[in-house]
Amino acid sequence: MVLDGYNTKKIKNIIESLPRDILIQVDEKDLYCMCIHMLSSMRSHKLKLFIQQDWSNSFVNFIVFMPREKLTPEAYNEISCYLSDKFGCEIISDNITVVAQDFAHLFATIAIHRRRNNKPRWCKRNLAKQFG
C-alpha cells in the first residue's frame, strides 16, 4: 500500500489514538502492520482484532477495531463478556477511542491465569463472525 498524503494522515491518526501501553510494547514493524490493517479495515468496514501479550507475560491486550456504528453499548457488553468467558478472567481495564469520524477501537486488558505447566490459559478467537 502506497503511503500518500491521505494514507499518511490516517495512519498518523491511528497511531495517535492508540493507548501508550501498545506504543511502548509493540515494535515498529508490528505497529506498522497493525496500522496498515486498521487502514484496510477503514476501507472495507470490517472488524479487526489485535491481540498482544505484554512484556511480562502477565497481561493480554486486545484492540477491537470496528466501524463506530457497530460499537454500540450492546456490542461493547457482548465483546467484554465474550473475552471474559473465552479467556476465563475479568477485563481489568478498557476504553473506547474514536479514531476517525466513523471508526473506533475498544482497548481491553486482561490478566493471564497460568496453569500448572506455566502456559497461559488463553487462545485466539475470531470475533469477526460474531460482531463483524
Largest sheet: 4 strands, antiparallel
Give the amount of beta strand, in percent.
Answer: 25-35%
End-to-end gap = 23 Å
Share of helix, binned: 40-55%
Report the strand count: 4
Structural class: alpha+beta
Order of helices and strands: HHHEEHEEH
Mean pLDDT figure: 80
Strand order of the largest sheet: 1-2-4-3
Q: Give me the number of helical elements.
A: 5
Number of domains: 1
Q: Over all CA atoms, what is the radius of gyration?
A: 15 Å
Can you tell me about this structure?
The chain has five helices and four strands; from the N terminus they run H-H-H-E-E-H-E-E-H. The two termini are 23 Å apart. It has 132 residues and is of the alpha+beta class. The chain has helices spanning 5-17, 20-25, 28-44, 73-87, 128-131; strands spanning 48-53, 59-67, 91-100, 103-111. Residues 116-128 have low confidence and may be disordered. The chain has one domain (5-131). It has a four-stranded antiparallel beta sheet with strand order 1-2-4-3, sandwiched between helices. The longest helix has 17 residues, at 28-44. It is globular, with a radius of gyration of 15 Å. Helix 1 crosses helix 3 (28-44). The protein is 42% helix and 26% strand.
Task: Give a brief outline of the structure.
This protein is an alpha+beta fold and 132 residues long. Helices cover 42% and strands 26% of the residues.
Lay out the secondary structure.
Blueprint: H1 5-17, H2 20-25, H3 28-44, E1 48-53, E2 59-67, H4 73-87, E3 91-100, E4 103-111, H5 128-131
Antiparallel strand pairs: 1-2, 2-4, 3-4
Helix pairs in contact: 1-3
